[in-house]
Amino acid sequence: MNKASEILFISQPTLTSSIRELEREIGTSIFLRTGRGVVQTNEGADFLMYARQVYQQYELLQQKYGEKGNAKRKFGVSTQHYSFAVKAFVETVKQFGTLQFEFAIRETKTLEVINDVGNLKSEVGILYLSSYNNKIINKMLRENGLEFHKLIDCNAYVYLYKEHPLVNEESIGMEQLRDYPCLSFEQGDKSSFYLAEEILSDNEYERIIKTNDRATVLNLMKGLNGYTLCSGIICEELNGDDYLAIPFREDETNQNSIMEIGYIIKKGGLLSQIAKVYISELEVYLEGTK
Fold first, then answer.
1. How far apart are CA 281 and CA 134, in angstroms?
2. Reported confidence tier of residue 258, pLDDT bands at 50, 70, 90
3. CB atoms within 10 A of CB 229
4. 271-280 b/e with 16+ CB inside 10 Å = b?
5. Is 262:151 a contact under the CB 8 Å cutoff?
6. d(C-alpha 30, C-alpha 128), whole Å
7. What is the pLDDT of residue 117?
């Protein structure tokens, strides 16, 4: 409260009085007051999420129609671990520069991608849907006031280091991968098969290694002949040419479900000019991979 009152150039009692008046107006407590300070109530956290959304829309209106200010405008992306998402981000930053804009890109867990866009920490999120996770992910998107826009459909590929014993195969089946560790991105304590970034996540893998970092996955591919199942869209400019994506060969048990990769945004919200450029860069890059 003291810090907030300093930023607003008002006294702390005035701020406290204003918040209490707001709480009376909306009929709920935003903060719980204790001897050690204040904490958000559950209702308050929900209210503040919507308040941030309103304020972000106000900022976008100011950017479009108001006088130019000195404060840096912010743009954030939260994404599953895709190099093409980083490539589009790089091209966007090049167009706008970092003097007047504050950029953030977060390669993170599926649930955090949804939460980041839902609470406006990021304006755009990147993830994929499939016939396996579609129902669950879409339910989570609706609950967070989000909408999904498809960018591209992909079959599954096996991603390997260039010296892997299977690298010369035209396609690779699950039976050929049993002797090698499957590399999977961790999804947190509340993870489920539906939140996994890799297709066929409901399989029982005899050998599996969890990690949360894309660079570590590449190191484990090289050091342990590990593999991961991915979209096959690999940005060599950023990842180098030491890794190859080979088509996954389905069988009766392990069918090659389509990965529908897209972006998520707030439903009905205004997109900033930076977000529009970022989405355009995604579309241009992915179009070139078809």
1. 25
2. confident
3. 27
4. ebebbebbbe
5. yes
6. 35
7. 94
When mean pLDDT is compared over 43-47, 121-125, 128-132, 266-270, the highest value belongs to 121-125
Task: Look at the block and give the residue holding tokens 């599926």.
Answer: 110
Euclidean distance between the first and the last CA atom of the chain, given in angstroms as a whole number: 53
| Alpha carbon distance 274, 103 (integer Å) | 10
State residue 285 phi and psi, 5-degree precision.
-65, -45
Tokens of 21: 């008046």
Phi, psi (rounded to 5 degrees) for 122: -125, 150
Alpha-carbon distance 188 to 178, whole Å? 25
Q: Which two tokens stand for residue 127?
A: 């993830």
Which one-letter amino acid corresponds to residue 197? E
DSSP H helices, the chain, are 2-8, 12-26, 42-65, 83-96, 110-118, 134-143, 214-224, 236-239, 273-287
For the beta carbon of residue 156, count every other beta carbon within 10 angstroms: 24
Choice among 17-31, 195-209, 228-242, 243-257 with the minimum mean pLDDT: 195-209
In order of 155, 183, 287, the CA distances from 227 in angstroms are 16, 6, 26
Token digits of residue 216: 């570590």
CA distance 221 to 180: 10
User: What single letter denotes the amino acid at residue 45?
Assistant: A
How many residues are present in the chain?
290
